Amino acid sequence: MSTAKKEYKRVTVKSLVEMKKNGEKISMLTAYDYSMAKIVDSAKVDIILVGDSASNVMAGHETTLPITLDQMIYHATSVIRAVERALVVVDIPFGSYQSDPKEALRSAIRIMKESGAHAVKLEGGEEIKESVKRILNAGIPVMGHLGLTPQSIYKFGTYTVRAKEESEAEKLISDAKLLEKIGCFGIVLEKIPASLTQKVSEKLSIPTIGIGGGKHADGQVLVIHDLLGMTHEFNPRFLRRYMNLYEDMGNAISQYVTDVKTKSFPSDDEQY
Ligand code: KIV
Q1: What are the distances in angstroms from CA 250 to CA 54, 59, 232?
Q2: How far apart (Å, rounded) are the C-alpha atoms in residues 190 and 205?
Q3: Is there an atom of ligand 1 within 6 Å of 221 CB?
Q4: Is the CB–ligand 1 distance for residue 29 below 6 Å?
Q5: Helices (H), 12-68
Q6: With a 6 A CB cut-off, is 51 part of the ligand 1 pocket?
């Protein structure tokens, strides 16, 4: 296994499988708007996920369930305008693919056609097999998502670690194999034991991308607002914060308020 890092001018689903083969870890981050996507893409993140976590961090909902297909397409369109290198994957939101495979395909086509995205992501395994197949048959790359699947939060009841028990772990392994077999190019593994992530990653030739799945995943994904410390009340064990923007932005904005109130802004040099 080589550790040499190949330069990718444009990341494709093929590049990701190649990265796994070469032992190069894959970086993935969310973005939901043009300005943030430009920064994330310039920093050479391999995959940008227009996640339905936009429902939480952009719209302030408690869960990912309320966000609509139209809203996801709006976010995806803004991101696509900014991106030159990364592969852009868009979540198909809750209620836009669960009822039947035809609806799933229609939603995936709308995302691809209206936003210009490169791939879609759906949550689930065996139960959404026919929908995934139908989307793949239309030539649309699909990423899977197993483990803690936030669109099913009311079925789980909590956001705790999934698949700690043997039966759930076995189902997850069989779902992962199924998703690979039918043609998914990668799978997000959310909040599962590191040992299970290792097992799944070793069994598959397509990459696994972990969030709270430990170090054995072939890549890692975080929500950009969490990484930057904007969501200061969200403190799961898996989260590494690289900044404390909640505080830094708050301080900058307070300083602006003070400057306006004290008439120090604008100065003579800041006017025409
Ligand atoms: O919506 C999202 O941000 C996601 C990640 C947590 C993987 O699905």
Answers
A1: 21, 19, 12
A2: 19
A3: yes
A4: no
A5: 13-21, 34-42, 54-57
A6: yes
Active site residue 24: no
pLDDT number for residue 3: 53
Of ligand 1's atoms, which has the minimum distance to the CA of residue 150? 8
* Residue nearest ligand 1's atom 8 by CA: 51
pLDDT of 6 reads: 87
- Pull the structure tokens for residue 6: 């190949």
* Whole-structure pTM value: 0.97
What's the pLDDT score for residue 39? 98
Q: Is 209 helix (H, G, I), strand (E, B) or coil?
A: strand
Give the model's pLDDT for residue 4. Answer: 58
Q: What's the CA-to-centroid distance between 237 and ligand 1, angstroms?
A: 16
- Identify the CA nearest to 230 among candidates 213, 254, 246: 246
Helix (H, G, I), strand (E, B) or coil at 130: helix
54 lines ligand 1 (CB under 6 A): no
CA 92 to chain centre: 11
User: Which residues have C-beta within 8 Å of that of residue 165, sequence separation ≥ 6?
Assistant: none
Q: In whole angstroms, give the CA distance from residue 36 to residue 256.
A: 22
Given the residues 180, 190, 202, 270, the one annotated as active site: 190
Rounded mean pLDDT of the chain?
A: 97
8 A C-beta contact, residue 191 and residue 162: yes
Contacts of 201 (CB under 8 A, 6+ apart): 207, 208, 216, 217, 218
Residues 6+ apart with CB under 8 A from 89: 47, 48, 49, 50, 117, 118, 119, 120, 121, 143
Spatial contact of 91 and 50, defined as CB atoms under 8 Å apart: yes
Query: Which tokens hold the place of 132?
Result: 């995934």
